């Protein structure tokens, strides 16, 4: 067991709106606002390619005419009038967001106003879901630690004040000499140089390895739902309040959000970089927590003093959180909570935006499971060997198409230089695909009695208690006979497949990582004809000429194997039969339904190519 790598659960509880922008905007003609029967307002983002093909010919001609003429205001009005019809077509929508009442009312009242763009600045997303990047939270923790170190070190504090005064003087001189655009560019560069110099002094970064934050890893976190809010800010300029134009932004609100767990890993030995090892004292949990309490607590008190107690003049969207925020921060030292501020609007002109509280929990020591992709493969061979030594030997000796497929060990893991690490007392799972009675019995006759007797499995040298074995109901489980697959008569002409683990194909001496129909369905057909007595006809020519990719959302990914890593792709790909052949469509649907059992491509017995048919949104 490693005593040097420890993971702490951090609970985040938003107290005020958090806004982390992606840089993307949703224009007013790309969404509609609609109120449901319960009086709740929602924003629906429109998928124009799908929507334009579903409207009547007359409406289609009108929409195209408005687009060609550039009459955006009439297009906005048209969409508002058609809002109820649009939201009823789920396949025409990209996503749906809650809308605060002020935001919804503003959009409805300004939809005809050409002076209001009504563009919505979107939250950062991954796979369509908003999330707080671990890098944002790590940056907030880093800022607190940096400022705490400066504040408690007289030498650092004096250097900080001196360098800051030099920077201000230099920028003041340049501001009077340069055009605004050129000045802003130089200002940004000078501020970056200043911050780097401050960090180098505070963290003694004479070497790039002398950075204690190299030993800190912070995970991402996602929220159940976000809201569109209307941000109205003011700015104090020369003692007078100046109104800023309000903006529509997507934010996560504190209402209804339960605490979100984020894993934070601290390596108490410092980072290991090959032959070079960090000699700086690594960060501790206490240092991170105390720095946040000191710095962010002080920031809040300073801003309260700056604004006074007259909340109605505060440049924020809603001050109903002010009392809760004050009480929460004053109690941080008693129950383990500490303040963190991140995201857009955390300056003095957006005080209540981007405040969260984190609660530290007991450390969880991780344990190592080496070579994740091979340990499950070895486990299956061991289980089969106990019941059928000949079959196990046949699988081991390299039969090209084996009677099983597996997924990697899945669950809360972290990557290290030595392999995957798992967390004690956490749940993990993996998938096994088995074909035919002999293969099923070889593994099942060992596995099911172990589960019934609450025995444990040895994986990567560690003991895992068997909690359950699912054959139906889980998103990657299924149970079927060959006759059921053969006799199904699904003639849907579009088939969407989701590839959960990196997938690649071997053609001669090369690896192919493009999900061509010929490669994907050719792989499935090879498995079918190898494993099933009922052979399917060769459809390679039809795959080349009559099947096209109708949708693709994939990215490349590296899969670690014992000999060498392989590059594959993960994501969603949909295929459409362009011919009128119902027989070809039925044939492809049979093959696609095999994917959840067999996997697709090469190395499916090592965890690659895990895939299944999905309904594409």
Features:
alpha+beta
Low-confidence stretches: 270-280, 310-319
- Please report which band the strand proportion falls in: under 5%, 5-15%, 15-25%, 25-35%, 35-45% or over 45%: 25-35%
**Rg (CA only):** 29 Å
Major sheet: size, sense and barrel closure? 7 strands, antiparallel
Number of helices: 18
Overall mean pLDDT stands at 80
So what's the overall shape? globular
Distance between the termini: 44 Å
Class derived from helix and strand content: alpha+beta
Topology, number of strands = 33
What share of the residues lie within helices?
Answer: 25-40%
Brief summary:
The chain is α+β, with helices and mostly antiparallel strands and 617 residues long. It is 37% helix and 28% strand.
Question: Can you put this structure into words, describing what you see?
Answer:
- By secondary structure, the protein is an alpha+beta fold.
- The chain contains 18 helices and 33 strands.
- The strands form ten sheets. Strands 1, 9, 15, 18, 19, 22 and 23 form a seven-stranded antiparallel β-sheet that branches. The protein has a seven-stranded mixed β-sheet with strand order 2-6-14-11-5-4-3. A four-stranded antiparallel β-sheet has the order 31-32-28-33.
- Helix 12 (about 370-385) packs antiparallel against helix 13 (about 390-395) and helix 16 runs antiparallel to helix 17.
- The longest helix is centred in the first third of the chain and has 23 residues, at about 180-200.
- The chain is globular.
- The model is unreliable at about 270-280 and about 310-320 (pLDDT under 50).
């Amino acid at each position: 067991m490693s005593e040097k790598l420890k993971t702490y659960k951090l609970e985040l509880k938003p107290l005020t709106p958090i806004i982390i922008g992606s840089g993307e905007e949703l224009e007013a003609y790309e969404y509609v606002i609609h109120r449901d029967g319960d009086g709740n307002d929602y924003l629906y983002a429109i998928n124009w390619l799908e929507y334009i093909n579903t409207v009547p010919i007359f409406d289609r001609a009108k929409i195209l005419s408005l687009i060609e003429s550039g009459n955006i205001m009439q297009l906005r009005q048209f969409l508002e009038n058609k809002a109820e019809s649009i939201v009823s077509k789920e396949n025409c929508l990209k996503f749906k967001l809650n809308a605060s009442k002020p935001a919804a009312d503003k959009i409805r009242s300004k939809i005809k106003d050409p002076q209001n763009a009504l563009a919505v600045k979107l939250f950062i997303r991954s796979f369509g879901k908003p999330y707080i990047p671990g890098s944002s939270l790590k940056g907030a923790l880093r800022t607190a630690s940096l400022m705490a170190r400066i504040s408690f070190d007289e030498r650092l504090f004096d250097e900080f004040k001196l360098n800051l005064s030099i920077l201000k003087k230099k920028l003041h001189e340049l501001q009077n000499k340069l055009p605004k655009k050129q000045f802003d560019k130089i200002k940004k560069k000078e501020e970056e140089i200043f911050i780097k110099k401050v960090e180098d002094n505070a963290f003694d970064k004479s070497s790039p390895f002398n950075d204690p934050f190299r030993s800190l890893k912070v995970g991402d976190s996602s929220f159940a739902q976000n809201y569109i809010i209307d941000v109205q800010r003011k700015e104090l300029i020369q003692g007078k309040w100046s109104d800023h134009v309000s903006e529509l932004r997507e934010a996560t609100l504190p209402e209804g959000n339960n605490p979100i767990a984020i894993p934070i890993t601290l390596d108490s030995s410092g980072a290991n970089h090959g032959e070079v090892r960090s000699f700086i004292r690594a960060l501790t949990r206490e240092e991170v927590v105390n720095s946040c309490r000191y710095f962010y607590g002080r920031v809040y008190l300073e801003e309260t003093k700056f604004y006074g107690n007259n909340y109605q003049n505060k440049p924020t969207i809603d001050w109903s959180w002010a009392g809760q925020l004050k009480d929460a921060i004053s109690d941080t030292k008693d129950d383990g909570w500490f303040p963190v501020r991140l995201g857009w609007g955390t300056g003095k002109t957006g005080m209540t935006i981007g405040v969260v509280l984190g609660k530290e929990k007991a450390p969880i020591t991780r344990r190592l499971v080496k070579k994740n992709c091979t340990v499950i493969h070895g486990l299956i061979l061991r289980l089969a060997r106990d019941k059928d030594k000949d079959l196990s030997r046949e699988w081991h000796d390299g039969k090209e198409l084996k009677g099983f497929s597996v997924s990697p060990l899945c669950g809360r893991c972290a990557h290290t230089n030595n392999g995957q690490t798992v967390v004690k007392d956490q749940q993990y799972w993996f998938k096994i695909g088995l074909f035919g009675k002999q293969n099923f019995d070889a593994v099942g006759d060992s596995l099911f009695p172990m589960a019934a007797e609450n025995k444990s499995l040895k994986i990567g040298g560690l003991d895992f208690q068997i909690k359950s074995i699912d054959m139906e109901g889980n998103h990657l489980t299924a149970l079927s006979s060959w006759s059921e697959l053969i006799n199904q008569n699904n003639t849907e002409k579009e088939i969407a497949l989701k590839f959960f683990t990196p997938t690649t194909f071997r053609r001669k001496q090369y690896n192919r990582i493009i999900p061509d129909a010929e490669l994907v369905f050719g792989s499935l057909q090879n498995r079918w004809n190898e494993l099933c007595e009922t052979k399917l006809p060769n459809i390679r020519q039809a795959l080349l000429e009559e099947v096209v990719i109708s949708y693709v959302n994939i990215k490349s990914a590296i899969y670690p194997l014992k000999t060498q890593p392989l590059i594959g792709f993960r994501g969603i790909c949909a295929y459409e039969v362009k011919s009128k052949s119902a027989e070809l469509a039925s044939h492809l649907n049979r093959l696609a339904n095999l994917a959840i059992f067999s996997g697709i491509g090469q190395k499916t017995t090592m965890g690659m190519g895990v895939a299944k048919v999905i309904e594409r949104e």
